[in-house]
What does this fold into?
Amino acid sequence: MSAVEPHVILRMGSHAEKDYFSKTIHLFDGIILGANLVEATPGASASLLVRFAGQKTKLPYYLDPMTYAFGSYVDGTNRHRSDLDWIKSEQTRKTKSGTKEKYRDFKRSYRGLADRIGEPLKSAIAKGRAIPPEAFNDAVLTESFCKAVVDYQLNRIQEILGEDTEFKEYAAEAPRPAVVFAPYFYIDPTNPVAWTTAVLNLASASTALSPERPVHAALCADMELLTNQSLIQRLVTELPKTQAKGVWLWFSGLLEEQADGPHLAALKSLVQRLSASMQVYNMHGGYLSLALSKYGMHGISHGVGYGEQKGVLPVIGQSTPTVRYYLPSVYKRFGVPQIARCFKELGIETPQDFHDKICDCVICKGIVTTSIDDFDAFGEMHKSTPSSRRFAQTPSAAKRCRFHFLLNRAKELKWMKTATVADVVGQLQEARGTWGPQPSMQSELGYLGVWESLLAS
It folds into this structure.
């Protein structure tokens, strides 16, 4: 398929991010929430969607059913797991003696989601075991499951509003999602054929229900699936037969700035082949996926400052990462000192130089005002508590970096709608020429040449 106009859909990870959406969502093409967030904070989620996607604004919204969480997975040690442990958390309860004890159990949000949707999710929770792919060889179970997942997406927000005395009057205004997702699961690399069959069966059963919104499938798999030619050929052949109007790709481990040429070429080829018969999105995509709109990628989604590449399993047990500064000309985040070390060589001596050569968004213009040393505010550090041993990024610095990123992503989206492949390749070449020779940067910019070759071929 030829070039299409790209779309960017912002994904909300928590309601702590509401301020970013309030100020920038009008620059993008929609909002997506995970069903686990809806079940964790039903009232807040429903009121937010009325505000951003209700009758006045009519912003498209999407509700990710998160059914993959109830399937098998491969953990960080490359071990096959079917215990559903990753959707559990450490919790506290009182014993009969009045003392508190810790125990591990399913998160309230996922238990609530299972209760709402029903089988086979409820049985998976009760047994503490993942749903096997063979469960969806049963046509009756598959149809009832798909109907429950589709109905959940179409009606859950209205139900929440109707049950709340404070928001009941807004129930009639409850927005409907732009599309509904068929249930989907991670195509476990230890059993890819069976899981591919299950995902295709679920997509076909969902479209057969003829819901009031278009049905989209989701293809969630390890990045190595891209090089499995027989499975890719099967997906290219059979996904269109499901009658799904779109497909959302999610290749776990595929980092756009780190992936090699063959994997990215396989992604480009898959987009080209699927886009001939359906809309193709990257569920966790960055600038390269946005540029692949020139080859049929209809849209991408990501968070407010993260999530452009996302593994199926969340990173657990690590401290909050530093939100690095998104360097617009190379489409990647870097540490503030790393960028600042290039200023002299690039002739950046004044705030105006910074705005001309680095970024002129309203955030940068408001921060870098009297001296280029003001740029340090994006990397401002402090000890979060008096007893902290390490320095961490201040909340204000993180907020500046996130807003700066969103404004630049909106600028990229607008530019990409009219740019040609030659324009995109030209900017990559210019970036390599400017930043490639910089000692503090050159070892991390190899992806620019890989992207350039990919897009030009």
Q: What stands out?
A: The mean pLDDT is 93. The longest helix spans residues 139-163. Residues 3 and 295 are 5 Å apart (CA to CA). The radius of gyration is 23 Å.
